Hints:
By secondary structure, the chain is mainly beta.
Amino acid sequence: MTEYQPPAGFTPGGSVVYTPPAELPFEVESAPTEGSTNPISAGAVFAGLAEREPIIEPPVAVPEGKVLNGNKVWIDFTEWVTAALEEINPVDPEEPAPEEIDLSLYLTKTEVGPAIDTPSVLTPQVATLFSAFSYSLLKTTFKLANEEDADFVVLGCPERCVITFTDTHVVINWIPTAIGQFFVFFGVNNGGFLHKVSSLKITVTAAPFIIPEGELVLASAAITAGMLINIWDDGGIPKVRPALANSLSTIAHAFATTSVAAGESLVPKLFGVNAMQTGLTTGERLFLSWTVPGGVSNVGPDADSGFVMQPVARAISSTQYILDIDQELLRAEDE
């Protein structure tokens, strides 16, 4: 027997006793063997395996669609669910059998018009201003698979987006405040339990041109000093004209400090004090006029007028206002 020496500095924590078998060499069984006394105790392994739970054998046939229930019995899944449903909602033999559901009445496809599939590009007139978005679509845009009109609700829309319903149309009014893609989501259904989502994508992009403060811009119409002016894109060339609140395309972006004729140039004043006014009341909120080109009004247009309500300034004296252009809103006409 070989004597083993511990390494230098080793301090035993207790007695270690090694008892070899009576005879060496010995054979280790190839499988757990009851009563074995080998150093690797196959007997203990055999005893442990004897305590294990019996293996649950699957059915003789391929167990397709079979599951183990709580009692560890293989059962057919479809039959089990059917039995459970019958137990929850038992069929009364005295009651007539329920009618089968006609699935053709339910929504299988959402059909939307090309205007919804195509992004609507909103181009702000200047870098920090965005054009108001107004869009109307027919309610009949939403269809069931059998061509009947569908029911629908608004599930989501951008912040401050206003959606109204008429007898025939859905009208969307919104003023974007950032560049990117935005969506209006409609939940479309048949009045039953089937439901799908349709969306209108609105893409907001940057203007193709930016008017820096101090840059000369060509006037496309005669302008008088003190007028509010509209900056517009004429085939890629920025131009200015008198602002007027009768259209979203002519809202105010700046004011003029000099008078020019059509074809001459001026520098749009994008901020600051306009001191070329009369008849103002200090502190009043002023709106772009819908009747006087380049003018202001102390009230906005009436609802349902079809004109644009655009806050543009704050009066600081009877002859001065400070430019303070805010988001505009189209007062859509009643149908």
